[in-house]
């Protein structure tokens, strides 16, 4: 099962649900498809027509249906409604590294893992028990022995995988925190305040290579 993490928020396509620390919002089938497509194509500007096709395949719907779906998704994001960025005259995008994909493996229970049997064993590995022994003399001494179950192989492997995923998530989060959001336009990388980008007003003399930045006033400039 695949889930997408955005900070403490999570998006589960299989359950059509978007969860914040406070609440879980049930998404419609169209909203789920649109959000997953935007995430899978992070950094690319997706046209309105393409999103209408993704959200309502083989159906004819009014263009306003997309506006409603995007508005509902932004409500689900709560205070982070800027996750989906509107690009004037072009469509919508989600900046790269906004969501981190996680592959969740279903739990596997094996009846044969770490099963220990002995006729002379009085301690059960499923829980902690106390064993009392008596000495062969007039004074009886009780010795309490606590038997703890060993970690199963599956638990050890799960802990290792979890640690690797945690380190990878921290690395990607740090990278995305340090890097401004970017989109690709005609093979040109544009970063910065991309919500101010207007494709109809792009200058014709953009460099063929390198990265162009858009400032808080909506002006484009090449990094020196």
Descriptive overview:
By secondary structure, the chain is of the alpha+beta class. Helices cover 26% and strands 19% of the residues. A 5-stranded antiparallel sheet has the order 4-3-2-1-8, covered by helices on one side. Helix 1 packs across helix 2 (48-55) and helix 1 (29-40) crosses helix 3. It is globular, with a radius of gyration of 28 Å.
Strand content: 15-25%
Q: Which regions have little confidence, pLDDT < 50, spanning 5+ residues?
A: 112-143, 172-178
Mean pLDDT: 75
Work out the number of β strands.
Answer: 12
Major β-sheet profile: 5 strands, antiparallel
Distance between the termini: 44 Å
**What is the CA-atom radius of gyration, in angstroms?**
28 Å
Structural class: alpha+beta
Percent in helix? 25-40%
Overall, the morphology is globular
Sheet with most strands: strand arrangement = 4-3-2-1-8
State the helix count. 4
Element order, helices and strands?
EEEEHEHHEEEHEEEE
Any chance you could write out the topology, listing elements then pairs?
Blueprint: E1 2-6, E2 9-12, E3 17-19, E4 24-26, H1 29-40, E5 46-47, H2 48-55, H3 64-76, E6 85-87, E7 91-93, E8 100-103, H4 153-178, E9 182-185, E10 188-192, E11 211-214, E12 220-222
Parallel strand pairs: 10-11
Antiparallel strand pairs: 1-2, 1-8, 2-3, 3-4, 5-7, 6-7, 9-10, 11-12
Helix pairs in contact: 1-2, 1-3
List keywords for this structure.
single chain; 224 residues; alpha+beta; five-stranded antiparallel beta sheet; four-stranded mixed beta sheet; 12 strands
